[in-house]
Amino acid sequence: MSSARHIRSAHPKISSMPRKQSEATTHLEIYKLSVEKHRLQQELHNLQNREQQIQKRLEEIEKQSNALLSQITSTSSSSSEQESSVKQKNQEKPNSISPKSGLEWQEVYVEY
Fold first, then answer.
1. Position 105 in a domain
2. Boundaries of domain holding 38
3. In-domain check, residue 14
4. Which residues, including other chains, have CB under 8 Å from residue 19's CB and lie 6 or more apart?
5. What angle (nearest 5°) sits at the alpha carbon of residue 78, between those of residues 72 and 79?
6. Does a structural domain hold residue 41?
7. Dihedral sign, CA of 52, 57, 59, 60?
C-alpha cells in the first residue's frame, strides 16, 4: 500500500523579497503561471486515468460477483432437484432412510 501523500495547497509561491515591477518580472510571473497550469493539467489527466481504472475494476468485480452468485443459485437449484428426486424415490420405498443434503447455501457479502 502506498504511503499517504501530503495534499499541497494550491497557493502561489511567495518570493522572500518582492521584485521591482518590470518586463522581466512580468515574463517570470507568466512563466510561473504556465508551469503551474501545466502541472495542474497533468495532475487532472492522471486523476481521470485513475478514475477510469477504478471504474473498470469495479465493473470486473461486479461481473465476477454476479457469475459466482449465479453459480450458487444454479448449484442450489440442482441440489433441490436432486433432493426432490430422492424424496420421490424414498416415498416409493417406505422403509428406506432419506439422506441429508449437505449443500445448504447462504448468500454472504464480503466487504474489502
1. no
2. 24-66
3. no
4. 25, 28
5. 85
6. yes
7. positive
